[in-house]
Structures are given as C-alpha cells and as structure tokens.
Amino acid sequence: MPNHLHPPDTQAPLDLPLVFITGASSGIGQALAWRYHRAGWRLALVARRVDEVKSWASARKISADSYQIYSADVADTDSIIAAGQACMSRQGLPDVVIANAGISIGVDTAERADLDVMARIYATNNLGMAATFHPFINAMVQRGSGRLVGMGSVAGIRGLPGHGAYCASKAAVISYCESLRGELRGSGVRVVTICPGYVDTPLTRQNRYPMPFLMRPEDFAERAFQVIASGASYRVIPWQMGVAAGLLRTLPNAWFDRLLQGRPRKHRQGQDSQP
Predict the structure, then answer these.
(1) Quick one: CA torsion of 10, 94, 72, 269, rounded to 10 degrees?
(2) Whose CA, among 58, 86, 93, 107, lies 20 to 30 Å from 250?
C-alpha cells in the first residue's frame, strides 16, 4: 500500500520535538495530536482516512508547516514500516512514537467468520504495534533517547465475555511492551504502557453495557501527555479505573464469572447496534 504525504515539502524548525501518532483520524489519537500541538511539538500523523485528518487540522487552524500526514494501515506491516521510514526522511527521528491505532469488535468463537475478525484484531492491535515501533528502534538506541508508547487497555487485565479477541489483544500489548522495556533497558529508550479505561470515542459509543469513569478524549490526552513526559513505565488512566481493575484481578474466578453473568456483550461485526 503506497504512502502519501500531506502537505508537501514545508516543515517547521527541526529543533522542535516530534511525535509520531498512529490512529490519528479520530478519538484518542486526534486528542493526543491536539495536546502535543498545543505544547509546541511537530506532528507526524498516521491514518487510513487522510482526508479526515486534513479536515481536522484545517478546522483547528494548525499551521501546515508543523505537521505531516502519512497514509498507512497498521495491519499492513510494510505499509506502516514505510510510513515510519518516510517520517524519518521527511521530518527526522521522532522523540515520541505512540502506537495508538486499534480496533474493537465483539467475537463469538463458535462463528467461523469471527475467526477472521480475530485475525484482523490481532494484526492491527498487536503486529501493527510492533511494526509501528520497528523503524525507529535502532535509530533511537543509537541516539540514546526516545519514548515508545503502547496503548493497552484495562480490558487487557481480565477477559470479558464476547470480547475475547480485544481483551486478548490488549493483554498481549501489556506483555509485549513489558518485554520490549526489558530489551531496551539501559539504552536511553523508554517504553511506556498506557491502559485507558473508558474514553468517549467512536470505539466505545455503541457499547451496550455500563462504562464507569467515562472520560472525554481531551481529558485522557492531558493525563497521557503528562505520563509520557514523566517516563513512567505503566499507567492506567483514570486512576480510579486502575483501582477497580486491580480489584477485579484479585477476585477468584468463580466470583468474577458470577459478577459478569448476564452482562451484555460487545457487538459482533455487522450486528445491529441496538440491544
């Protein structure tokens, strides 16, 4: 899949820090882009829906010389690697790389079609994250600095009925980032794992179950920005959700299963949004 760069040739000063964000066309990715822009950073924004990012940047009156858009699909390994390489060629080596792109679809393992959905979720949420980081690691190690940020989820802490693929993918994100953190220990490159609770985005608005401590994307982005700057290795946002998830983690399986009995499931692909 070819990568298209927008806009051409104009650049902000290279001494300004640079953040590379996937999934920048909506939700958390867009909110993070805006927070970093407000802090004076240059933006490298990755999305499949390039026109939506362009419209958003124009509506926000973001100067054309302060950002570049890279058209890529993180589920296509060569596509996202090419976007990272193009970013380094056009804008330089990022200071922060945020692997934010992800999808969430309910699955039923008894349905053959849902096995293909599971494969797509893993390709996006897991392999897509590794492929996002891949182009930058050696250069960051050589420089001796950088932040690689993996977007996990509290859904990765315990499995939820009907949500097996997403929960499993986010559990894998948490373990993968922990492994990568150990591999890069002492190199100057920090790996940061952020696990959002419920954030009001297109990904969550069709959920048909309670979403405690629901956050606005802007509020989440502010807290995530501070966590990334601090270099913390792992953080659940908001902290209340971290406490709740920790308590759920300690529940015996029988109690946990009973607690979730009758809970509405995540929508499967093509399923009507109404309960």
Answers:
(1) -130
(2) 107
